[in-house]
């Protein structure tokens, strides 16, 4: 009887959390680019980062949360991620033009999160191809119309003017190495990790890794699209690469030691939720009971971490029910 009651309660919650995840849901002069946009900083020779803000999307930060960047080669430029709006994409193009007059050959989008993808409109307007991993592209298509509506509501029509939904010009399935810009660039893909189709980009000349959704610096990793086992396997694979610096999805540039910090969070989260599942905890108790003191000062601990705890708990309970 208790099992049946638990099943009736949990299965609708699985669906509800799935819907929540689905809503979780940038010489080139750039006319109209935001003069207050952050400058690109050279983190290694020919590798640049434009850092986003902490917190959540709001009017103060104009949705500029995710990091973006670019790699300048002998034959051109690859841009990596693009910001939350057309305006952010314009600003990134303006920063590229400030640094070099070489042509932008490609925009690579690392994963399907709103703060990384919607600046693509500015690139596509200039005929610059946009590329995503196929599964990330499918996720974007499935949910990001909703993201765009939310951004328009929160940030307003002026901030989001020109921002539109789009389809990548090219998609790929497997990791690959590129000589497109005259320097070696590796596009890394390890299967479903922090999200379906999430990739990272490694500059072979400097060892700088653009980590996308795989690594955030002192910000709670968001598991709503992730598979923890696959994510940790991807982190293990990164440890075997000659990484000298990391441009994370969020937060300042870091050393390769960031891999261990994110791995510790995922490990402790899973371990704590196993304990709560075995203790027959109620879902309503989980966010408060799943505290992880090591990470309490990380950005979004009170929001993303609490949601992570609920998501992982429900997944574990679901797995028990279907065995």
TrEMBL record:
Family matches, as SMART domains: Lactamase_B (SM00849)
Signal peptide location: 1-28
Species per Swiss-Prot/TrEMBL record: Methylibium petroleiphilum (strain ATCC BAA-1232 / LMG 22953 / PM1)
UniProt key word RNA-binding: no
Statement: the UniProt record of this protein carries the keyword Signal: yes
Family: Belongs to the metallo-beta-lactamase superfamily. Class-B beta-lactamase family.
One annotated GO biological process: antibiotic catabolic process
Name of this protein: Metallo-beta-lactamase domain-containing protein
UniProt keyword list: Signal
